[in-house]
Amino acid sequence: MSGSGDDGQRATDGRTAAGPGLRTRGRPRSAEADTAILTATRTLLAERGWADLTIAEVAARAGVAKTTLYRRWPGKADLVVDAMAELFSHLEVVDRGSMFQDALATVGQYVTLLQLPETQAALLALASEADRDASLRAKVRGQVIDPQRRLVYEAWERACARGEVEGETDVDLIFDMICGTLVHRILIKGEPVDEAYLTRFVSVLLAGVAQLRMSGGI
C-alpha cells in the first residue's frame, strides 16, 4: 500500500521512510499483535460469520492499524486460514493408556473444535473459496489439514509402541474416515456429536481398521 497515510503509519511503527530494500532497522513482527489479530478474527467469525467479517473490524477489535493486517495478510481468506491453523494447533494426541481411550479423547478434542461457530463459519467459507483458488487450497491443506493428519501417525506409533498393533497402516484412509464423518455430521447436517455418538463412532472406526488389517487391506 502507498500514499501519505501509509507513510504516516510507517513512521508510527518506527520505520524509516526509505524503500523496503534500504530499511535496515524497524520494529520486529509482534507475536502479541499476531495473537490479538487471530483471536479477533475468530471472535468476529463467531459473532458475524464469514460474509460480514472485514479487515477493518478485525483491526479495530485487535487494537492495530489496518495497514498492520495488510502487511501480513493479503486478504481475508489468508487471515482466516492462519486463525484456524492457530486454533487447530492446540490439538494433540491424548495418552489415556489404550488405543481406544486415546482415540476417544483425541477425536473428542476435534469434535469440540468443529462445533465452535467460528470454526464452522471459517471451514465452510474456505471450502468454497478454495474451490476457485488453488493456492488457497494448498495453504489450507498445508497449515490446517496436514498437521491434523500427523496426529493419526502419532497415535498409530504410540499404539505400536504399546504392542496393541504392529506394522504400517493407511493413515490417509483413517484420517479421511474421521474428518469425512465428523465434518459431514457437524458442518453439513448440522447435528451435534454427543458422548454416545462419539463412543459408537470410535468403536466402529477401530473395528474397521482391525478388520482391514486382518484381510490384508492395510
What does the secondary structure layout of this molecule look like, with pairings?
Layout lengths: L3 H9 L18 H18 L6 H8 L3 H7 L3 H13 L10 H16 L2 H14 L3 H29 L8 H18 L6 H20 L4
Helix pairs in contact: 2-3, 2-5, 2-7, 3-4, 5-7, 5-8, 6-10, 7-8, 8-9
**Average pLDDT for all residues:** 86
- What is the helix content? 55-70%
CATH third-tier fold name of one domain: Tetracycline Repressor, domain 2
Q: Could you spell the SSE succession in H and E letters?
A: HHHHHHHHHH
CATH level-four homologous superfamily name of one domain: Tetracycline Repressor, domain 2
Q: Give the oligomeric state of the chains in this entry, treating copies of one chain as homo and distinct chains as hetero.
A: single chain
**Strand elements, count:** 0
Backbone structural class = mainly alpha
Beta-strand content estimate: under 5%
Specify the biggest β-sheet: none
Overall form = elongated
Q: List unreliable stretches of 5+ residues.
A: 1-28
Alpha-carbon distance between the two ends:
53 Å
> Helix count?
10
Give the CATH level 1 class of one domain: Mainly Alpha
Radius of gyration: 21 Å
CATH architecture of one domain: Orthogonal Bundle
